[in-house]
Inverse folding.
């Protein structure tokens, strides 16, 4: 299919696009179970349910698990453990995106992630690389990464979409409004769902124009990235709008990264308003995973795997029963 056939010319509203698996079902069935999921991009695990992506941050300062897996041996062991616990993909990142974080050099990022990707891929663990740099993505793909997870959706490095197109690997296009030091001031929206969809649509068109195959694109609302808590919740209940950016005949797989984010800590704040610490948000993460998976999310990116691996199975049983009941 030609890239232009997939260009999205307008942002769709509420109803998911035709071509979602749900679209072939009786009227109302898809609505009952949420949008369809589709098989996901080629080359990645297809489990017939929402996938679980386990996170390994090889950083001293990520907001949720900074320092815990800083060092190749510890990071490889953690990735191995996540896979054994049921992660379908292990996401390896070397650069912190916590609000206010300063960037590291490409050399330092490579030094952090490549030994870990090499080690895990060598053990046949499906690996993605969490990077905004084409230079890092290129080496990571050579080392065995099967997916490029770019939180900037190609905005941070203009060479990224072309590199991904040439490598022929799936590409996560996340909604992003700027680097960590400036993103909080950009969390201003009149209509968060409409604006995120419109900005993502422009990124999708741009990366397709650079040669990325539409079937390789995964979209992500970018929870916590230039978002206030109310923005995150609005996006979570409108995942079908993101999937529908593919237009008639193509639903984009949607990745959701809610794990341990501040909006969960704020939701679970103590009576005096003190946010719940990150590590205390894992049960809330599992709840979001279950709801997002039941709504048709393709993948949940999480720091702790076991509860989420159970949640996606519960959600799939829920979806199946909802469809059976129709
Ligand atoms: N969030 C973080 C890092 N990478 N990638 C995607 N696709 N989606 C996200 O929401 C996302 C991400 C920040 O969380 P972390 O640094 O605690 O892992």
């Amino acid at each position: 299919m030609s890239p232009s056939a997939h260009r999205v010319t307008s942002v769709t509203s509420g109803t998911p696009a035709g071509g979602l698996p749900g679209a072939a079902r009786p009227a109302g069935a898809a609505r009952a179970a949420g949008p369809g999921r589709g098989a996901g991009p080629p080359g990645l695990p297809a489990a017939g349910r929402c996938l679980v992506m386990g996170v390994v941050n090889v950083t001293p300062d990520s907001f949720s698990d900074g320092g815990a897996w800083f060092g190749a041996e510890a990071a490889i062991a953690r990735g191995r453990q996540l896979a054994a616990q049921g992660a379908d993909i292990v996401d390896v990142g070397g650069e912190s995106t916590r609000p206010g974080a300063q960037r590291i050099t490409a050399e330092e990022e490579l030094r952090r992630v490549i030994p870990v990707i090499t080690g895990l891929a060598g053990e046949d663990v499906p690996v993605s690389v969490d990077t905004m740099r084409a230079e890092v993505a290129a080496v990571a793909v050579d080392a065995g990464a099967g997916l490029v997870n770019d939180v900037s959706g190609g905005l941070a490095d203009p060479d990224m979409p072309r590199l991904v197109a040439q490598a022929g690997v799936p590409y996560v296009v996340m909604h992003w409004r700027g680097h960590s030091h400036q993103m909080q001031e950009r969390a201003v929206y009149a209509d968060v769902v409409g604006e995120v969809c419109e900005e993502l649509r422009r990124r999708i068109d741009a990366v397709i124009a650079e040669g990325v195959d539409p079937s390789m694109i995964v979209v992500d609302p970018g929870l916590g990235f230039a978002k206030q808590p109310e923005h995150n919740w609005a996006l979570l209940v409108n995942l079908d709008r993101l999937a529908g950016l593919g237009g008639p005949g193509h639903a984009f797989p949607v990745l959701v990264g809610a794990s341990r984010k501040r909006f969960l800590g704020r939701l679970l704040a103590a009576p005096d308003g003190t946010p719940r610490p990150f590590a205390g948000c894992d049960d809330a993460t599992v709840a979001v995973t279950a709801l997002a998976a039941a709504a048709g999310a393709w993948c949940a990116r999480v720091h702790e795997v076991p509860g989420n691996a159970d949640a996606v199975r519960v959600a799939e049983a829920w979806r199946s029963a909802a469809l059976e009941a129709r």
